[in-house]
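Worked example 3 (structure in, sequence out).
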């Protein structure tokens, strides 16, 4: 198994109510497997496709710049940029 490059997080806000993180993914970059401890909202800044490695199997998720989506706490996955270009999104975790 080849090792993928790591996605690059940049925390913009971390206070008593939210954590706001900009995520940058080179082609093929990944977050590594993780479980979300908070409900969260993602706002894609670029179009692209994510590959999600989940306990239920692999899923592809299209991203559309400016089209936000929401997920509840407890989601477990590894997020991989399946596009041939950089992907950027802003994640807001609700504490």
């Amino acid at each position: 198994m080849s090792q993928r490059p790591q996605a690059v997080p940049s925390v913009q806000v971390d206070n008593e109510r939210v954590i706001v993180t900009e995520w940058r993914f080179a082609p093929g970059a990944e977050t590594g497997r993780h479980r979300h401890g908070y409900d969260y909202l993602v706002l894609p800044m670029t179009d692209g496709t994510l590959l999600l490695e989940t306990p239920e199997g692999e899923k592809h998720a299209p991203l559309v710049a400016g089209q936000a989506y929401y997920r509840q706490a407890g989601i477990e996955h590894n997020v991989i940029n399946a596009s041939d270009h950089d992907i950027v999104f802003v994640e807001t975790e609700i504490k």
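Notes: The beta strands are 8-14, 18-25, 34-35, 39-44, 48-54, 57-63, 69-71, 76-81, 87-94. The chain has a mean pLDDT of 97.
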